[in-house]
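Hallway conversation turned thread

IA: we were arguing at lunch whether anyone had actually written out EF-hand domain-containing protein end to end. Turns out nobody had. So, for the record, here is the sequence (214 residues) and right after it the structure tokens. Reply here if something looks off.
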Amino acid sequence: MDRPSLRRLFSACDVNKSGRIEYEDFTVVCRELGVPDTQVQTLFEKFGAFEDGYIDYRGFSSRFQEVSETLNLASFGAGSTQTPWEEFVDRIDVEFLLSESVREQLADLYQAIHSSANTTLLQAYEELVQSLISLSWENKLECEQLETSLKRAEEINNSQLAELEDDIQQHLAQAEERVRDEERKKMEGIIATMQRKHDDEVADLHATADRLLR
């Protein structure tokens, strides 16, 4: 299936017109196609649904062929007609990153300009929309790069923190060993002093006993 047709089909499955196929949208489509309820979740996951519970156009288009063997989606979008705005979106073949309210405002203004038959103004507006979409993608890429950089910095900080903790533990262990050695030497010195004192006292007693016996 060509890209414009995929776009139209994606738009037809996007029942809530949110720019992505929510699980509730997908359930509605499956029911209209007579898919058993027990298979809906499995088919939804086959489209690479996000954890948040939706399918974006990229996942829809990349896995359409695989899923269409089980789910006859082509028949669902066969009778759908496109507005001039939808035809324009299909023509530029992009995935919107803008909010639903902004997309609705863009679509309403596009319809109004298209109805006026002012081709110069319409062309300028189309270029403006494409620039806006391009800017939104650039912002997304910058955010992803920033997120990657922050994650890498966090990993480095965690690694350095772990190394610092290991170093502190080693220093503490060395300090404890030194304290134990010093305490042991001190005790050995005290014991040696007491032993010498004891030996001196015993020697004095022996000397005194010898004098008394003589």
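OS: looked through it. The chain has a mean pLDDT of 81.
IA: good, adding that to the notes. The first strand starts at residue 21 and ends at 22.
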